[in-house]
């Protein structure tokens, strides 16, 4: 034998052995999983893991195999709809792991999923979904991997093993629009399905791996009569018995949306259905009640759809876009306040722009926002405010005062952490400009392998001045910038000046996803234009939106987080108060907590600083305190107070709920001004005032972390929480702030930035190894030109 041929045979044999081994391992893993599933079932209880098949056509009967455990001696077959009938069959073939039933679905049964379960004389199984459809049902065969099916049809398949691909052939005529609708994850499958459509020559015609964030939905107009192939795969090439799917195919009418997205309250309106293969008349009447939303009536016998549809109802002046309105001269007049429903769509095939005009006065504060993606529309809106001549309205100018660049790694649009060149020359609260995306410095790096943090909103990086948070590449240049009013005379420092206009793509406050929102303060009385586009230049009859113009109503809502705590004797637990800032309200909020049960100590008042979203506190208990009771627990009051538009606003906040007193902790934590043994609060009748420290801007002062050990002898790491913004623990080291094993105290230094304003703030220490025990609060005063002071 030729040496090369022999080597090739050896390699192929090794590869076959490897594949066989992998397949054997996968099979063994599946069998182990099935065995584990059966072991979790209580003894004697019947359980169904799988139906074969999972779907039937109404007006017919089908034999279905139940796969599960404890399936012998079944006495009853149950359905969630009494119109479904069934019986046990092929009883001679029944085993503990399988049984057969015959199901009859009447012709008038609505297309839907229905629960199925079985009983024996001991218990009832959990419920499985049986899918009843009006289409003929076809099922994957092990002997015919590429069946030729007549449309319309629903085909049930399983992507197993990993890498499996199923292919279905069908005949179609020129001009037909065929819909391919996959149900996989929507019916509990693990399959991340993908569709690929080919002609009889193997040419790829269309593909889809997800529609509006769900399973694939593909529609395609057939170019010529002939045979076509639709292939179903898993995006990640995974597979198992749990990677099942249903593929419905045909030229049936499929509804995927509606227009407009809102209708006037308390009257009847017409709503257009959007989708594929819809009849010439595809509008329905909607009778709206009070402000809220109302369901759009979509007949399940006339249309297929994946979900129900609702439209908003509002008391605002509601309008519907009138085309043409693509240019400033064609702008459609709308009332303000008010709302208008529009659609990014025209018959020319070119990108569409919708322009509206409204009257506004200097001194007003308008919120202009879109509702699109929030209601399932594929539109990614962008809104711009223009003068009547179509020129953009300038909001401010950002003058660069320091250059920088992104280092170490690129950043995405959500992450708050980044590493910047020249960060030692920056200060907290400065604005950082990156290609039109403006963020703000919240925290400096806390070590050599630490990120700088930017301000966040709703857990994502916030973008200021209604800019949009975007992704940025490694080494991308950016600048520290200072905001100035348009027309203000600026010194030439050799760095660029960036104009910022009234425009927004994605809401910078990260509340409404890819929908748009901006705050508009008219520079003068007059008529202004608002232009709505899709930021990607896409359009179509599904690209609908609702544009809302309303006057801002600044407000706030405070929530106490950490309710129903368990506080260990003599110790404490952290909590926080967070604020939902509404319509541009950015000022500070004071939170007062009173009427705690006897022996309990709390951080009060807490102040959420201007522009911040949270303040942190600690709830502590004396060593001799008793369990709170049902009388004194509900008496706790939490009140939030702030000045809004010159008015003092007071609001009730949820309290701590049910406070539970626990056993003694494994250590107690103290944060104190001076060295020496830590002091525990032991007497609920005589709770002393908190320790106090005073610091001046630009100054560093010492403080002491202390512990009393009660079973935890290892090292302890700490953080100090609720320090004023700009005050930090300055000597944290590479391992953070810690007290080594066998020791009980450690000196730390607090440092205040030069810009920190005078304030009083309750801070505390929290450890990380013994249940996150906290110290009692320490009162830190920030005073300009203050001497270092400490008192009790």
Summarize the structure.
With 792 residues, the chain is mainly beta.
Instruction: Tell me the CATH architecture of the largest domain.
Output: Sandwich
CATH superfamily of the largest domain: Macroglobulin (MG2) domain
Largest sheet: 7 strands, antiparallel
Shape category: globular
Strand order of the largest sheet: 33-36-35-34-39-32-40
How much of the sequence is in beta strands? over 45%
Number of DSSP E strands = 64
What's the Cα radius of gyration? Answer: 33 Å
How many angstroms does the end-to-end distance come to? 95 Å
Query: What is the CATH class of the largest domain?
Result: Mainly Beta
Mean pLDDT: 92
Structural class comes to mainly beta
Helix content: under 10%
Which regions are unreliable across 5 or more consecutive residues at pLDDT < 50?
A: none
So how many helices? Answer: 1
Q: Could you say what the CATH topology of the largest domain is called?
A: Immunoglobulin-like
The count of domains is 7
């Amino acid at each position: 034998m030729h040496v090369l041929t022999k080597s090739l045979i050896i390699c192929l044999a090794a590869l076959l052995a490897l594949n066989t081994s992998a397949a054997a391992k996968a099979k063994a893993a599946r069998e182990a999983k099935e065995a584990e599933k059966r072991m979790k079932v209580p003894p004697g209880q019947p359980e169904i893991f799988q139906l074969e098949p999972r779907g039937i056509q109404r007006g017919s009967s089908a034999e279905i195999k139940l796969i599960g455990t404890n399936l012998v001696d079944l006495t009853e077959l149950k359905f969630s709809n009494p119109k479904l009938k069934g019986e046990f069959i092929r009883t001679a073939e029944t085993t503990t792991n399988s049984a057969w039933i015959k199901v009859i679905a009447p012709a008038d049964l609505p297309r839907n999923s229905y629960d199925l379960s079985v009983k024996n004389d001991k218990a009832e199984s959990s419920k499985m979904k049986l899918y009843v459809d009006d289409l003929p049902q076809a099922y994957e065969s092990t002997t015919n991997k590429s069946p030729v099916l007549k449309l319309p049809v629903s085909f049930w398949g399983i992507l197993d093993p990993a890498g499996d691909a199923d292919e279905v052939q069908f005949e179609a005529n020129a001009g037909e629009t065929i819909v391919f609708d996959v149900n996989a994850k929507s019916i509990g499958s693990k399959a991340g399905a993908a569709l690929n459509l080919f002609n009889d020559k193997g040419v790829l015609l269309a593909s889809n791996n997800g529609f509006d964030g769900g399973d694939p939905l593909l529609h395609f107009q057939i170019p010529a009569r002939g045979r076509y192939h639709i292939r179903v795969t898993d995006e990640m090439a995974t597979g198992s018995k749990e990677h099942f799917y249903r593929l419905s195919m045909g030229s049936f009418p499929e509804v995927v949306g509606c227009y407009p997205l809102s209708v006037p309250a308390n009257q009847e309106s017409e709503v257009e259905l959007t989708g594929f293969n819809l009849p010439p008349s595809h509008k329905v009447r909607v009778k709206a009640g009070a402000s809220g939303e109302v369901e759009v009536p979509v007949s399940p016998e006339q249309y297929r759809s994946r979900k129900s549809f609702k439209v908003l109802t509002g008391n605002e002046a509601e309008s519907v876009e009138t085309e043409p309105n693509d240019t400033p001269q064609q702008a459609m007049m709308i009332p303000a306040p008010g709302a208008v429903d529009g659609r990014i769509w025209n018959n020319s095939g070119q990108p569409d722009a919708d322009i509206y005009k409204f009257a506004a006065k200097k001194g007003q504060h308008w919120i202009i926002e879109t509702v699109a993606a929030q209601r399932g529309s594929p539109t990614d809106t962008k809104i711009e405010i223009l003068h009547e001549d179509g020129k953009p309205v300038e909001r401010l100018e950002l003058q660069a005062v320091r250059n920088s660049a992104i280092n170490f790694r690129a950043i995405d649009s959500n992450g708050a952490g980044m590493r910047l060149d020249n960060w030692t020359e920056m200060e907290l609260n400065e604005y950082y400009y990156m290609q039109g995306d403006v963020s703000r410095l919240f925290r400096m790096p806390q070590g050599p392998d630490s990120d700088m943090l930017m301000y966040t909103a709703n857990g994502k990086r916030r973008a200021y001045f209604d800019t949009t948070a975007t992704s940025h590449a490694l080494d991308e240049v950016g600048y520290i910038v200072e905001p100035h009013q348009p027309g203000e005379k600026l010194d030439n420092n050799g760095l660029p000046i960036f104009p910022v206009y009234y425009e927004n793509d994605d809401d910078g406050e990260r509340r409404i996803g890819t929908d748009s929102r901006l705050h508009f303060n008219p520079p003068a009385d007059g008529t202004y234009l608002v232009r709505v586009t899709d930021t990607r230049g896409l359009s179509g009859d599904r690209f609908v939106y609702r544009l809302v113009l309303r006057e801002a109503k600044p407000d706030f809502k405070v929530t106490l987080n950490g309710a129903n705590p368990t506080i260990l004797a003599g110790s404490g637990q952290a909590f926080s108060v967070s604020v939902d800032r509404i319509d541009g309200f950015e000022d500070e909020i004071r939170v007062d907590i009173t009427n705690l049960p006897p022996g309990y100590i709390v951080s009060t008042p807490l102040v959420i600083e201007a522009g911040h979203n949270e303040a942190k506190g600690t709830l502590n208990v004396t060593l001799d305190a008793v369990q709170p009771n049902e009388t004194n627990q509900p008496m706790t009051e939490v009140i939030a107070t702030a000045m809004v538009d010159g008015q003092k606003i007071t609001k009730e906040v949820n309290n701590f709920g049910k406070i539970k007193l626990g056993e003694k902790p494994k250590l107690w934590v103290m944060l104190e001004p001076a060295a020496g043994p830590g002091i525990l609060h032991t007497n609920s009748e005589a709770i002393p005032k908190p320790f106090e420290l005073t610091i001046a801007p630009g100054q560093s002062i010492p403080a002491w972390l202390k512990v009393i050990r009660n079973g935890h002898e290892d090292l302890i790491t700490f953080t100090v929480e609720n320090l004023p913004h700009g005050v930090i623990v300055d000597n944290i080291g590479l391992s953070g702030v810690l007290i080594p094993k066998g020791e009980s105290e450690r000196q730390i230094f607090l440092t205040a930035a030069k810009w920190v304003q005078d304030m009083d703030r309750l801070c505390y220490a929290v450890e990380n190894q013994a249940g996150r025990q906290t110290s009692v609060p320490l009162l830190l005063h920030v005073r300009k030109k203050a001497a270092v002071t400490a008192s009790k």
